[in-house]
Design a protein that fits this description.
By secondary structure, the chain is mainly α. It is 70% helix and 0% strand. α1 crosses α3.
Length: 104
């Protein structure tokens, strides 16, 4: 027995989602490093939360922008994957900072 095809709205390319996560992971990496350099007194947790919040803001703004561009679509799953990719990278860097003792 074969499965019926998924509705078009649910047909999401894994490659596209991976690219979203990597792009926003790179953004989070750069943002975390910038904040850590500009605000050395901030704890690892504060750097993490700020990085994730700004990354989420950019992810939502990117999707809202795409709503107004002909041929593009605004999809919540893209924003979610963007935030997850950014949060994963920010978590790695926050953990590194905490373990080195700079995050307390």
């Amino acid at each position: 027995m074969s499965q019926p095809p998924l509705p078009e709205a649910l047909q999401i390319s894994v490659g596209t989602l991976t690219l979203h996560a990597v792009e926003f992971g790179g953004f989070a990496f750069l943002l975390f490093r910038l904040l850590a350099h500009r605000r050395p007194q901030w704890s690892a947790g504060r750097l993490f939360l700020t990085t994730v919040a700004v990354t989420a803001g950019f992810a939502v703004a990117d999707e809202v922008h795409q709503y107004f561009v002909p041929g593009r679509h605004c999809e919540a799953i893209d924003a979610l994957v963007d935030v997850v990719g950014g949060a994963a990278v920010a978590a790695i860097w926050a953990f590194r900072r905490y373990k080195r003792g700079a995050g307390r």
